[in-house]
Design brief:
Layout (H helix, E strand, L loop, with lengths): L5 H7 L46 H22 L3 H31 L14 H22 L4 E6 L4 H17 L2 E6 L12 E2 L3 H4 L7 E6 L4 E7 L4 H11 L4 H4 L5 E2 L4
Helix pairs in contact: 2-3, 4-7
């Protein structure tokens, strides 16, 4: 192993022996680190939302809920422990509630009398007998006009059986309906038999099966050139019922309400 020059080693690696001026036992504090001031907080880019205003509830609502809760509690107590005092307390409070409701009804009635658009007796079907008579007359005329207009491109299919007494009872009603309102009645015999008043009745060619007619008499409103056909009803119907039902099923929103009822069939 080659010899190492001690002086060169001491010069290459300086140690404590080169710093004799510091003394044998010494201690140096570590140099103070430069204290940097903390950076100022960055201004928030988000706008601070204003505090949510506290919504004050109407005192009437607070009073109503307190009364409602008291009625329920008094009733439950009276049910679970029906002593005279408990039942009397509940009944007295209930009487107060009924009196308030009655007063409200009286005020609402007075407001309705003074405001036509809020008066239920003026909306829809009247309640007065004389007004009801006028209402029914006007509605019958309107519905008759509707059926007459439909008669230009619509017909009524009348499905019957020659051995059905209800069909025989219904046939004169349909005859009169055809003459009065001008819509053609097309009679369809499901058994091939005749029907008085309908000498040109057709024999069923399968359309009854297509329309799933299982009960007679049956009436359908049909528009031949489009094949659109809608059931009007089954059984014996009056003229007023026919007018009402035809008016309802031909209203603008009728098909959208029950889209599965109206069918499209290739009519002869």
């Amino acid at each position: 192993m080659p010899a190492v020059d001690l002086a060169q080693a001491q010069e290459a690696t300086p140690g404590w022996w080169h710093d004799g001026w510091r003394g044998w036992h010494f201690y140096e504090d570590p140099p103070d680190e430069e204290t940097k001031p903390a950076p100022p907080p960055k201004p928030s880019t988000a706008q601070s939302s204003p505090p949510t205003p506290v919504t004050r509830r109407a005192p009437e609502l607070v009073e109503f809920e307190r009364l409602q809760k008291a009625v329920e509690e008094y009733r439950n107590i009276a049910i679970m422990r029906p002593t005279e005092a408990n039942v009397r307390r509940y009944m007295e409070l209930e009487a107060q509630v009924v009196a308030r409701a009655s007063y409200f009804a009286d005020v609402a009635q007075r407001v309705a009398w003074a405001t036509p658009e809020l008066d239920p007796t003026l909306q829809g079907r009247p309640v007065n007998a004389k007004a009801l008579e006028v209402f029914e007359q006007q509605r019958a005329v309107s519905r008759s006009d509707t059926v007459t207009t439909l008669g230009r491109d619509h017909v009524l299919f009348f499905f019957y059986r020659s051995d059905c007494p209800y069909c025989h009872a219904f046939a004169p009603v349909l005859q009169a309906f055809q003459e009065r309102h001008g819509i053609q009645i097309v009679a369809v015999s499901m058994d091939g038999g005749p029907m008085p008043g309908f000498p040109n009745a057709r024999t069923d060619n399968g359309i009854a099966t297509t329309l799933k007619v299982t009960q007679v008499p049956a009436v359908f409103l049909a528009q031949p050139f489009t094949g659109k056909i809608t059931p009007i009803g089954f059984g014996v119907l009056s003229e007023a019922q026919l007018l009402e039902r035809i008016s309802v099923v031909t209203s603008p929103d009728a098909e959208a309400m029950v889209p599965g009822i109206t069918q499209r069939v290739a009519l002869p």
